[in-house]
Write a structure and sequence with these properties.
Structural class: alpha+beta
CATH architecture of the largest domain: Alpha-Beta Complex
Distance between the termini: 52 Å
Strand content: 25-35%
Radius of gyration: 19 Å
CATH topology of the largest domain: Nucleoside Triphosphate Pyrophosphohydrolase
Shape: elongated
Order of helices and strands: EEEEHEEEHHHEEH
CATH superfamily of the largest domain: Nucleoside Triphosphate Pyrophosphohydrolase
Number of strands: 9
């Protein structure tokens, strides 16, 4: 039989996995919590206010920590293991956001001692179950890459096909055949060629942009190529 204390309301929090690509590696944004929370590196997030919508809470976290808006953001999963937080039962609604690091201005915040990007492959010990949340988010990202244009938020407005391929390789952690990648991706119709050229010491490359800066689904079987 359940007791009355089994039905005591539990606090609800949102935690946001903010991914970017830096130096050909997938990175995630971590914050070092202050004295009013378990010390250590963790995902940015916070408790949801009584009159606050879940999505609003996640968007606020994203804006306060990175200064960016209108990027890809999706709700991932609910994490509610009773002992996930040493302070007591806390239910966390996890989100994933994708941003271009060049557009980000990191803000430490009053309740944190540090904030920085770290490679997903080289993460320190994290508080709570945040490593599990990051692992889940990465799997979701790879699944999305197989049938959508989800990487549009990781790239600048104009990019070369080489830059696009490097983003895919950073997330998949393996090399892709250049000719096949370009042929397959161009066949999706997700990107369009522009009249702009890259600047630099090397031969100027044609720049592209996404046909839509919102989530679109791929009908061409691009995902099968990524699985090989």
């Amino acid at each position: 039989m359940r007791r009355e204390e089994d039905f005591i309301p539990s606090p609800v929090a949102t935690d946001v996995v903010i991914f970017t690509v830096i130096g050909n590696e997938l990175n995630v944004l971590l914050v070092k919590r202050g004295k009013f929370a378990p010390l250590g590196w963790s995902l940015p997030g916070g408790f949801v206010g009584q009159r606050e919508d879940l999505d609003e809470s996640a968007v606020k976290t994203l804006r306060e920590k990175t200064g960016v808006r209108n990027v890809y953001l999706e709700q991932l999963y609910t994490f509610g293991e009773p002992k996930r937080d040493p302070r007591g039962r806390v239910i966390s609604i996890a989100y994933m956001a994708l941003v271009d690091a060049q557009m980000v201005k990191l803000e430490k915040g009053k309740d944190t001692e540090g904030i920085k990007w770290l490679p997903v492959k080289k993460l320190p010990q994290l508080t709570f179950d945040h490593r599990q949340i990051i692992d889940y988010a990465k799997k979701r990202l790879i699944w999305k890459m197989e049938y959508t244009n989800v990487v549009f938020s990781l790239l600048p407005t104009y990019f070369s096909l080489t830059e696009l391929q490097k983003v895919y390789e950073a997330i998949l952690e393996r090399d892709l055949d250049k000719r096949n990648f370009r042929r397959k991706f161009l066949s999706t119709g997700l990107i369009k060629e522009t009249k702009k050229k890259s600047q630099g010491a090397h031969r100027p490359a044609t720049l592209y942009n996404f046909a839509e800066k919102r989530l679109e689904y791929i009908t061409n079987p691009f995902g099968q190529f990524l699985k090989k």
